[in-house]
Amino acid sequence: MANETIAVSEDILEQHVVAAFRKVGTSEDSLQAATRAMMHASRVGVDSHGVRLTQHYCTMLEGGRLNKNPQLTIEQKGPSSATVDGDDGMGHFAAYRAMSLACELAHETGMAGVGVRRSSHLGAAGAYALAGAEAGFVSFATTNTDSMVPLFGGAAAFHGTNPLAFAAPLSGQRPWLLDMATSSIPMNRVLLYRSLDKDLPHGVAADKSGVPTTNPHEAEMVLPLGGAEYGYKGAALAGVATLLSSVLMGTTLDPDFIPMVGADDIQTPRNMGHFVFAISPDHFAGRAIFESGMIRYVDSLRNAPAREGEELMAPGDREWREATRRGAEGIPVDPDTARFLELSA
Question: Which domain of life does the UniProt lineage start with (predicted)?
């Protein structure tokens, strides 16, 4: 059927993504970072932030909104703080560099924060928290985005979907990984469901008047995490992302962004900000105590009493299981993306 996905092996999919970026003249460092982040998302089942974004990024690169050959500039502000100027390139390049720098500084000082300015959409924030955890650090990454989510009780979009991502190393296992939007779902999932012509779950999106809808073609906003009764929690958490990524960095506030999609202007950079943080366990209880504590914590969590028929999972367990399955069966690619990347079943 026309709206069905096709399964593509990781290697083939990555080759086609890289080829698409090279075709529009993207620098190697930038395209490799973008491909790495999108492949992470597609691998673990976050398809809304996976390879389906390749076409959007290529359009913005050709239109001039994104710099094809960004030159990152780093300014260290103190022993444990620094900034990265993304030179209006793709956000993945600047965000990976920021996390790498945060880990370098935290290795010496115990903890470090790095902010990014003059950047753009970075995809799945969890990709950068994961990079920190794989380097041995407890890590955090966030960004603000253009308005897609009403305030609690609001009638118009105000905050972005503003993700919060945390990760921690887990000895002998894949890292503990939390990557969550502060909205009920990310707007990119609405766009994915449009491509698949698939109904949205109840209570996660609204039309232009703020009325909840399951029709992805009518949805123009996504509701804050917590829904109609407790959405003040998600709205406040979205503000944390804005405070760290925008206010702290002097970059664009959520309501002031040129929309990521649907705007006539694809030439003007959006000056998006990000923020990452890294903590070295060596500077606190010590590596050995931290590692044993993480194992005990996660084992206790997974083996806690569960309701009949339920399985208790630590953050990241579901994603790593999906990555294993997709590694064996292939990564599902939606029809629009398959056409753009020139993929066939």
Answer: Bacteria
Q: Using CA atoms, how far apart are residues 214 and 193, in angstroms rounded to an integer?
A: 10
Burial class (CB in 10 A: 0-12, 13-18, 19+), 200: buried
Angle at 59 between CA 54 and CA 65, to 5 degrees: 115
In whole angstroms, give the CA distance from residue 170 to residue 40: 18
DSSP class of 69? S
Token pair belonging to 289? 């105590």
- Domains defined along the chain, listed by start: 6-286+319-340 (3.30.1370.60)
pTM of the model: 0.94
Read off the amino acid at residue 299. Answer: D
Alpha-helix runs per DSSP H in the chain: 10-23, 28-44, 54-63, 91-109, 126-134, 187-196, 227-242, 287-302, 317-329, 335-340
Query: How far is the C-alpha of 202 from the C-alpha of 236, rounded, in Å?
Result: 22
Angle at Cα 180 formed by Cα 114 and Cα 222, nearest 5°? 115
Describe the crossing of helices 91-109 and 28-44 by its angle, rounded to 10 degrees.
90
**pLDDT confidence of residue 2:** 60
Nearest to residue 252, comparing CAs of 73, 120, 87?
120
Residue range 244-266, pLDDT digits in tens? 999 999 999 999 999 999 899 99
Closest among 145, 106, 168, 140 to 270, alpha carbons compared: 145
Residue 272 DSSP code: E
Q: Amino acid identity, residue 116?
A: V
**Residue type for 221, please?**
M
* Burial profile 152-182: b = 16 or more Cβ within 10 angstroms, e = fewer: beeeebbbbbbbbbbbbbbeeebbbbbbbbb
Give the residue ranges of the chain where pLDDT is below 50. Answer: 1
Measure Cα distances from 88 to 64, 154, 168, 265, 343 in Å: 10, 32, 30, 15, 30
